[in-house]
């Protein structure tokens, strides 16, 4: 055990709201960087960095660089989780924001394949790794900072503010992407204009940094420090929660992640290349769905605080399963009206489970090891769900030429997550935090 200097943390309502707002703004900026890459991977990077490949192979290669960021996220989560449990949540979140912002800005400066050959995709992948590493420390840390400042009866609501950063970042990325595209001459955006949204990250990171520098440390971490409970190896202690509960918690989040990345990222490539939809139309559909997603999170977290999240999460999981059966077939009709309805349905249903999954995961671990444990589950779940979803979906479409295989894949994932959630909620009381046995007491 080791300690760090105690931190004085105000607990008044104004301070709590300031922290929640700061976490929302910070996560929005980080997800802007992450989703901007996803949009560019779906629409631009195959031509800029993989021109020697066929269109289908180039798209698959571009989505592979997108997935690299997910592979780096667990490592980032482990590193940031370790230091977040040892030196505090606030400082680690500042570092993660800087890493994301700098990497995104540099992506806007990477020469394309025609200029430097194979070094172009190599540099792209390296910067994507930095992005993923930085984001690996963001999701858990922001959720904990907000939730640990919350009053006892509003833990889900406060934990939901960082979750709102996901759709907000997506909307911001798409708005900047579409606006830049609309203001440029024909062909100029694909040639070099796509760099402007990435370079804009430099401005956003300055804004986010100023905001986070004025945020107070988490009361829970301050309490851990004052009681000399800082763990030397927090991840090791977090694993004492047990493989069974951690596996079930991991399983319940995979469906939401996979479905979200299919409708946010994969459909942009599939819809333009296979179904001949206009690029701006699809980005607009995704953006409107994300606005609904963003706006409904406070409603669902409020429901969870008043009535419990068990029934809400299970009901949302069933709704997600049902909508996955019709989503891609509706796009496949070629009807703009049905396509808009399909995306609006995603905007309504996805936030039901997404809004509380951060709180569910965080409540699995006690405060001294919460950052490490939460980061581990979040980032592994992100790989198994979101990171692989665009690649698997593209491969299935490439193999069959249709979307039936993707629909079956999403249904299987939804059934798996629903089963994990049902078993977990049957075994664990609502919002129960498992105390982690201390190694010395266990030895005794």
From TrEMBL:
Alphabetized UniProt keyword annotations: Cell membrane, Membrane, Symport, Transmembrane, Transmembrane helix, Transport
Main location: membrane
MF terms in GO: symporter activity
Any Gene Ontology CC annotation: plasma membrane
Location relative to the cell: Cell membrane
Pfam families: MFS_1
Major facilitator superfamily (MFS) profile domain location: 19-432
Assigned protein family: Belongs to the major facilitator superfamily. Metabolite:H+ Symporter (MHS) family (TC 2.A.1.6) family.
Function: May be a proton symporter involved in the uptake of osmolytes such as proline and glycine betaine.
Name of this protein: Putative proline/betaine transporter
Organism of derivation: Gordonia neofelifaecis NRRL B-59395
